[in-house]
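Protein modeling request. Please complete all fields; requests missing the sequence field cannot be processed.
Requester role: graduate student
Desired output: 3D structure, token encoding
Chains: 1
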Amino acid sequence: MGQGLGFFFFILSCVCLGGPCFCSAHTDSIKPGEGLQFSKLLVSAQGTFTLGFFILDTRSYLGIWYTSDVNNKKVWVANRDNPISGTNANLMLDGNGTLMIIHSGGDPIVLNSNQASRNSIATLFDSGNFVVSALNSDGSVKQTLWESFDDPTDTLLPGMKLGINLKTGQNWSLASWINEQVPDPGTFTLEWNGTQLVIKRRGDIYWSSGILKDRSFEFIQTHHNIYYFISVCNDNEIYFSYSVQDGAISKWVLNWRGGFFDTYGTLFVKEDMCDPYDKYPGCAVQEPPTCRTTDFQFMKQSVLNSGYPSLMNIDTSLGLSDCQAICRNNCSCTACNTVFTNETGCQFWRDKLPRARVGDANQEELYVLSSSKDIDENKIGKGGFGSVYKGILPGGQEIAVKRLSGVSTWGLDQFVNERLIVNQQHRNLIRLLGYCSEGEERMLIYELLPNGNLEDLIFDPDRRKGLDWNTWCNIIKGIAQGLDYLHNHSRLNMVHGDLKASNILLDDDMNPKISDFGTARIFERNESEPQTSKLVGTFGYMPPEYFSEGWCSPKTDVYSFGVLMLEIVSGQRIIPPDCKDDNLSLIRNAWKLWGEGNSLKLVDPAMVGPHSTTQIVRWIRVALLCIQKHEERPTMSDVCSMLNRRDPPEPNPPAIFALR
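Delivered output (660 residues):
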């Protein structure tokens, strides 16, 4: 009886009272005569994707996003160049099968022009595709009339196409947003030319991937256990597509600064990478004007109010990337900015602008074009989230200042995560001294560690030879103790999420300090298999279940630690720089030699001394235990015990073999 009542009330919630039928319960489809109200959602059958209205900068849009994405980043926007005002709007499938956005501000926005049928249905699928299908009399699908995959925005999902339909002329390409608040088509497009991926800026080639050959691109580092590439060329269509393992969350995004990246954090093209006149792989050759040298770049600076700009362009289709490109190629331009509050339009300055000081009146922030010689004088590092500069506090203490990419969503997430370590005090964790956030600027201030990072130490043969056995022991045990503290003894139990050699810094006494907590996450002690929809770790260091299932737990860091130990012992990278098939040969070789009883053949001869052989074999055994399948891995507390006194058990095969 309870089931019958539940069904009865669901029917009541969808009753049509003399007009369109609006269902309040989550469903994946809209039938002719039904609609979706502004505050309601469509959810795909397995809950993978959600479709609904959203608001940006007072303007409203209809979009699709991954249901599990806490940031609700849109993978498709229906009316990106035709926003509506207010919230008085509905998505309707009328009696003729026309799918449209009805709103109070003007004519309906029709999504499937000339592709309608009276007996039809609009369905959001678990692929992220929103499809209008014609139906047979028995309710089965007769044909696809319209689909959102034919009108992509800035995101490529598995199964979507880039290319052209030679019969219909349908073109499939991505177009970036103007900026993070304006989804209108922006500066950059991503196309498939039949052999390679091409990013264009306002129609001119900006970057290309190199030809797709043997399942890889010349200028893209990808991982074959994640992606399968598809290239089709026949009389009907020419296109590129990709697929992933069943259930894996994936998207490729072209952002408004020309960055091209995937869900896993892989940066195919870094933001603004091809703007400098340096020749990065894949970037189109750009010759600077005669007035510029190759090292000019923009810095956001506070300057004394300069009055009116020298030139203004109020075209709202222009974004900051356009403004900077125009300024860079105009010899008289010294600075630029956008015009409107939604960061569109351009304004330019010709005079040299004096920098403002704290407390100065009449100051404003502009993007000033400067030589990198002036900017980089104190730069000591650069990463995916920003640059690091050396500084000195008033008391004379040397510090490292990480200036995050302020306009990047990833930069904001990292800023929030990094601040968590203020409360984490351990000798093997880097010390955060302070931070600041103002407008788009976000900076983190750390202790300065003079001996660089562990990556440079491991893979520099000369520096390796200079280290004694006790120093290596101290480094390995220190990293293990730092992770054990994070997992079990800190005020916030944390998973680092991107442990690797370059994220281990070394102080004056070569003590290791775990750094770069931008991908860290807090976990509950009783949380067995926590999942994440934002996979941003480094391939090779991350366990298979992280990419295939999205599992992120302390065992994720344990796996990374095992890989790091193998790199330390062997002096070899987990993925060699010249490796094109990402075969994780270091793990495979370590397991093979262990099985043969020849583990010492893995070891860099520079590490072996008269008293180190037994302990090195112990390290290799512990490393192999750390890279076993998820449920077989030890905890970091166990690892610390085994590194000191406790005898390690015999390891089982590495987790990567379970993928076969």
